[in-house]
Design goal:
Piwi domain-containing protein, RNaseH_sf, nucleic acid binding
Length: 94
């Protein structure tokens, strides 16, 4: 990629000032923080969807893929949170 170690260090340092939630530099580059926010939000949505299922149906879909588990995946997709069209491709979680 053609970066020297000094250029790479300067790039990472400058990126630490671009985190949207903070006016001061952060300890990690913002893409790492944003990935953490996305994962956290996704886990919350997943848990909210799974609350409606019985414990047996959640534990039964652990390791093997069968036609039953594939059909339950389709119903999971149908029940998963639908994002409003105005928020698509936006980092609303920031």
């Amino acid at each position: 990629h053609g970066f020297t170690s000094d250029q790479l260090q300067k790039l990472i340092y400058n990126m630490c000032f671009t985190f949207a939630r903070c006016t001061k530099p952060v300890s990690l580059v913002p893409p790492v923080y944003y990935a953490d926010l996305v994962a956290y939000r996704g886990r919350l949505y997943h848990e909210a969807v799974m609350e409606g299922q019985s414990p047996a149906s959640v534990s039964s879909s652990s390791s093997s893929l069968t036609s039953t588990s594939l059909s339950s995946d389709a119903s999971f997709d149908e029940r998963f949170y639908k994002l409003h069209t105005d928020l698509e491709n936006m980092m609303y979680f920031v």
